[in-house]
Amino acid sequence: MTLLGHEQAWRQWREALAGERMHHAWLLAGKRGLGKMHFAQAAARELCAEAGVSAGSQHPDIHVLTHLPKDDKEDRKREEGKPYETRRNITVDQIRGLQQRLTTRPTLGSRRAVIIDPADDLEKSASNALLKSLEEPPAGTYFLLVAHRPAKLLPTIRSRCRVLRFSPLDDEALGRWLEAEAPDCDAATRAAAVRASGGSPGLALDFVNRGLGPLDSLMSRIVREGDRGFELRGQLAEAMGTRPDRERTAAILDLARSVLASEMNRADRTAWASLVDAHAELVRLAGQAPTYNFDPGLLMMEIGTLLASAAPASERVDV
Fold this sequence. Notes:
Layout: H1 7-18, E1 25-29, H2 36-48, E2 62-65, H3 72-79, H4 92-101, E3 112-116, H5 124-135, E4 141-147, H6 155-158, E5 162-165, H7 171-181, H8 187-197, H9 201-209, H10 213-225, H11 231-240, H12 246-266, H13 272-288, H14 296-309
Helix pairs in contact: 4-5, 7-8, 8-9, 10-11, 10-12, 10-14, 11-14, 12-13, 13-14
């Protein structure tokens, strides 16, 4: 997959890499799906490269911390190469295990890299443990923290990092990229993916791969027309599926918010109050989704009801 929009980040990284004193901690900040993890992996390979030494695809001096499988059953799925569910957070035990490994010297050269993705999903105790390593980094160790929501990180962690910001693509550039990456995608779905993704290539491609086009159309209809007979909400629940994984559920909630945001751009200001209220409730619902065990059908009905509440007053159903 080709990646766009990283030119400025690469320039800053390589200037620092060529300098006399490379900063030991970097915060890669930007919305989900901009390719920050791909950048982190490539940057880590450059950092750890040694002349005349080939480390292959798995460099022993590049350590990646991310979500682990949520239980033994999911761990077996990972070992078998199957899709698996993950824990919601990066744990303090993972950080402590890493710190134990950092007591030794790098394997191949003088440098090693630690990538944490996403750092904004660190448990509180894990954040406090990581802070100790950032305050007193082992010699030759560099940290790359991938963050979709940097404000969730401890201020003391943010203050110890140099920030690389990753910006969304404009619609035209993203449309061209998506056409190249998903040539079988029709123009209408591609346009919806560009709008829904907010400039994120990863989210746009995820929209296409997850088949969210029909959901987008249904949500847009509900916001504009209402849903007096609950027929459209029933179709939404059916389109969501009976057993969506956490990632699909999060993608659908993000889509609902993007539909409301798009409607705000085209609606008269007098209609903004109901759109803003519905958007705020969806933000609350999205915050609950990772920890609540929602019934998929009921969750989609609630999403549909919030969308219907934002429909023009003359069309709105009592909800």
